[in-house]
Amino acid sequence: MKLGSSRLTILLSVAALPVLLVACSRSANEKQAANVQSVPAAASLTTATPQPADLNSTQPSKQASRIRKGALLYAESGCTNCHFIGDKGGSIGTNLNNEGTRGHNLGWQIAHLENPQSKVPGSKMPSYQSLGLHKLRDIALYLNSLGVKGSHLSASLPPVLSPAQSAAAVVKLGARLYAANACANCHKLDGQGGISAPDLTNEAQRGRSIKWLVHLFMHPQTNTPGSTMPSFNSIGTVNLRTLALYMNTLGVKKHASAPNTQVK
Percent of the chain scored above 70 by pLDDT? Predict the structure, then answer.
């Protein structure tokens, strides 16, 4: 039996159609699977980042432990100088009693701690990037637990530090304030910085009181006539005192002893 060439071509095409459909379907499924596998890691991180509303959702005991660590880091980092929690703290920064209800996710909190001015333009808050991502996340968890009513993750006041912890906290915060206010543009410290103002490497040996230093930061020209140093009054008396305490550790061997806190 003989078939015309055109008819034979049609029959062969029809016979091959199921094979082609299966191949196309398999190709589409493989492409879809490849697309799913190639989703950037950032997307999964965004999904995994807890929001204030779902802090209770995963491993509550582990998160509660990290929140306690965050509360201690908050205290050790001198955040109470500027921020109010419970009935204690400063008023320069935002009142944090209900921080967990503001809708800031952990990513926002960490970015704010790393670079405050990127989230709050004009902020006087120093950067805490040097603490590292793990510790910043713990602080962020703590902040996002504040004011969350009825939650097993609700945090209380930050812990009270021992004298040794307080002394160490002062030095760390003072160093951050020194960096945040660009003091190194003019002053040299341990061989690093500007040369247009006095070298501060051995500042503690000058014997200046905390009161004198705070007044200098507020009114430089009064203490040192002709000084070109700007006033730092805007960062608040508590932070100026912390900066002064830090100054009175400079030149003390490896900051081994607690800073002189005596006001004369």
Answer: 70
Nearest-angstrom CA–CA distance, 71 and 79: 10
Residue 22 lies in a domain: no
Nearest to 137 by CA among 181, 105, 172: 105
Number of domains comprising the chain? 2
Tokens 């003390």 belong to residue: 252
The answer as to whether 153 is a domain residue is no
Tell me: pLDDT of 20 over 60.
Answer: no
Task: Write down which residue in 109, 143, 177 finishes a domain.
Answer: 143
What's the CA gap between 115 and 180, in Å, rounded?
10
Q: What is the CATH number for 101?
A: 1.10.760.10
Q: Which of 50, 179, 175 is nearest to 109 (CA)?
A: 50
Residues with Cβ within 8 Å of residue 79, at least 6 apart in sequence:
89, 93, 158
CB–CB of 154/168 below 8 Å?
Answer: no
- Tokens at residue 157, please? 């006041």
- Predicted TM-score (pTM) of this structure: 0.62
Q: How far apart are CA 110 and CA 212, in angstroms?
A: 36
- Token pair, residue 205, equals 């040996």
- Quote the domain boundaries for residue 212: 163-255
Amino acid, single-letter form, for residue 148: V
Contact assessment for residue 246 and residue 212, using Cβ atoms and an 8 Å cutoff: no
Cβ within 8 Å of residue 244, ≥6 positions away? 210, 213, 214, 217
